[in-house]
Amino acid sequence: MSAASKWGKRAGGALDAAAKASGSLPILLAEGITVGYRPGEPVLREVFLHLERGKVLAVIGPNGAGKTTLFRALSGELPLLDGRVRLTIEGEFPGSRQDLHRLSPRRRALYVTRVLQSEQPAWPVPVADYVEAGLFASEGWFRRDAAGAGRVVAASLERMGIAGLARRLVTELSGGEFRRVVIARALAQDPDILLLDEPTADLDMAHQLETLSTLRELARSGKAVAFSVHDLNLAAMIADEVVLIAEGRIAAQGKPAEVLTPEVIRAAYGARVIVEPHPSGAVPHIILDPEWLRAK
Predict the structure, then answer these.
(1) Are 212 and 180 in contact (CB under 8 A)?
(2) pLDDT band at 171 (very low <50, low <70, confident <90, very high)
(3) What local confidence, expressed as pLDDT, does residue 22 receive?
(4) Cα–Cα distance measured from residue 149 to residue 58, given in angstroms and rounded to the nearest whole number
(5) What φ, ψ does residue 34 adopt, rounded to 5°?
(6) Residue 168 and residue 105: Cα distance in Å, rounded?
(7) Which CATH architecture has domain 3-111+191-295?
(8) Torsion, CA 33, CA 237, CA 254, CA 267, rounded to 10
(9) pLDDT digits (tens, 9 = 90+) for 116-129
(10) CB 145: neighbour CB atoms within 10 A?
(11) For helices 175-189 and 146-159, what crossing angle results, to 10°?
(12) Other CB atoms closer than 10 Å to residue 146's CB: what's the count?
């Protein structure tokens, strides 16, 4: 076992003890994971983080920092170079921790779903059928209750404000409309953990806020929600905790006010900003402050 794996085991044990003391256990725990696409070329190194039911985690960082790679690792899609990701499975195995990467893809899909940033519709199928595909993990193709499936799909479309698109072909949708379809499919899947890669991309301001509100509702219903985002103000408004990834590692982690400071942002992004309290709530508000604007 490598040094990172040994440290991950100790760190995970300490986290478990602290969580038990507070009456809550993380549902997903990354213990010192190192991830990459080629041996000896890690994209992320020794990442420790956890996801809890009822909480929203925002993952931020410059382009190419490894946000999508992190979500691919946390979903079990991308093999690890080191460390491990453990999943708390309830019900059938109450309180047990399973190595996520040892579960079959379909079994993982019962607990974790990842909404891709770059997904594009490949076939001209109706929106409702596209969303219904989210039921495969729990029901398969041949054991489905058609009426029950229809109710789940209708509720998911309604939740994302796209019930009127049910019979439209996915290939006829705008980018923003298709983003909401993909999220609706994740809602139909009904996992414990949602990993959303840039869920507000391509959305106008009103639909960004609607989507963020849906993520908060999902967390309040007992889901663990993590999403990546470039707009730091959106992260500040919704997240209970923010993780900043830079240069292949977690550069900062904590509550929005602890991470979203001028010093931390400038070190990670190379951008000068002003951070002030949001006028409508106790969250930081980030304002770009470029030199050329000052000169102007």
Answers:
(1) no
(2) very high
(3) 41
(4) 31
(5) -120, 130
(6) 30
(7) 3-Layer(aba) Sandwich (3.40)
(8) 80
(9) 888 888 889 999 99
(10) 11
(11) 130
(12) 8
DSSP structure string for 57-100: EEEE-STTSSHHHHHHHHTT-S--SEEEEEEEE-SSSTTEEEEG
pLDDT at 136: 81
Length of the chain: 296
Helix crossing, 175-189 with 205-220: angle to 10°? 10
Contact (CB, 8 A) for 33 and 82: yes
Rounded to 10 degrees, the C-alpha dihedral 131/134/140/145 comes to -60
Amino acid 60 reads I
Q: Is 282 exposed, middle or buried (0-12, 13-18, 19+ CB in 10 A)?
A: exposed
| 147-169 confidence digits (pLDDT tens) | 788 999 999 999 999 999 999 99
pTM assigned to the model = 0.86
- 3-class DSSP assignment, residue 37: strand
Lowest average pLDDT, out of 52-61, 141-150, 202-211, goes to: 141-150
Structure tokens belonging to residue 1? 């076992």
Q: What is the pLDDT of residues 33-57, one digit of tens each?
A: 999 999 889 999 999 999 999 999 9
Domain ranges of the chain: 3-111+191-295
Spatial distance between the Cα atoms of 53 and 32, rounded to a whole number of angstroms? 21
